[in-house]
Structure formats: C-alpha cells, structure tokens
C-alpha cells in the first residue's frame, strides 16, 4: 500500500498547479524542443536533441512523482497552535542547550518554504516531537545509535 503523505492545503494547491503546468504546457514545450532539434539533422551527434530528451526525462519523472504524491495525500488542517503538528514551525534546543537551537518545518519535503529545514513526522525526532508543547523535552533513538533529546523552545502554526 502506498505511503500517505500529509500536506497543508497551500502545499497541495501549489503541487497540483505544478502538476497541471507540467502535464499541459510543459509537455507541449518539450515536444517543440525535440522537434526543432530533430530538424537539425543527425540525431547521434545532436546535442540539442539529447539535451531536450534529458529534460523530457526529468520532467516526466517529476510528473510521476507529483502524481503519486497527489494521489496518496491527506490534507491536514491547521491545529490549535499549542502542540507540534504537521505544518508547525518548531524551534528545538538540543539536549536542552539554549545555545544549540535549530528551527524546522514539520512535514513533507514538498512543504518546504522560507529556507527552513524540513523534518518528516515519520523520522525519529519528528515522531517524538509531534504532540509536544513549548517547554516539553522529548527523547528519541538516533539512527546513528544512542538516545538524543530536544526541548521545544518555540512553536508557530
């Protein structure tokens, strides 16, 4: 069964618009580039043709990725703002050290914006902080081994 991705309505709308653009205008544009390159002659040594085909491959990969993501997503609503949830921007202090803080957006990598690092709610730290409130300290097993802890310093929805 495919993995369900949680997306905010804003991210869903942005990704759906990208999908529509790529499957309509994008495909037409790349077909024109390929046709123009074919008219230049010998395809075996035609750099324009090979570049257009590479671009087409990358675009079709993105279309497939977006299609799967949009088919297997769940729109999450904003929560009350008192606990960490998908879509939250959370600042954590590692091992409670106020000088060792990082700020993350909790959610799918497709939610990324404003230059924030994204932490998946399925990751060890992401799963540990979901439901935590400002001031809470949570512990989780590090993929590298050992147990780590972070304190939720601030939270925005």
Structural description of this entry:
The model has no long low-confidence stretch (mean pLDDT 87). The protein starts with a strand and ends with a strand. A hairpin with a 5-residue loop joins strand 6 and strand 7 (147-156). The strands form 2 sheets. A 5-stranded mixed beta sheet has the order 5-4-3-7-6. Strands 1-2 form a two-stranded parallel ribbon. The protein has helices at residues 9-38, 47-71, 124-129; strands spanning 5-7, 73-75, 89-94, 101-106, 117-119, 137-141, 147-156. It has 2 domains: 5-75, Helix Hairpins, CATH 1.10.287.180; 89-156, Transcription elongation factor, GreA/GreB, C-terminal domain (Chitinase A, domain 3, Roll), CATH 3.10.50. It has 157 residues and is of the alpha/beta class. Helix 1 (9-38) runs antiparallel to helix 2 (47-71).
Gist of the model:
The protein is an alpha/beta fold and 157 residues long.
Fold topology:
Blueprint: E1 5-7, H1 9-38, H2 47-71, E2 73-75, E3 89-94, E4 101-106, E5 117-119, H3 124-129, E6 137-141, E7 147-156
Parallel strand pairs: 1-2, 4-5
Antiparallel strand pairs: 3-4, 3-7, 6-7
Helix pairs in contact: 1-2
SSE pattern, N- to C-terminal? EHHEEEEHEE
How far from one another are the termini? Answer: 30 Å
Percent in helix: 25-40%
- Tell me the CATH superfamily of the largest domain: Transcription elongation factor, GreA/GreB, N-terminal domain
User: Tally of extended strands?
Assistant: 7
Biggest sheet architecture: 5 strands, mixed
- Which outline best applies? elongated
Please state the second-level CATH architecture of the largest domain: Orthogonal Bundle
The count of helical stretches stands at: 3
Structural class: alpha/beta
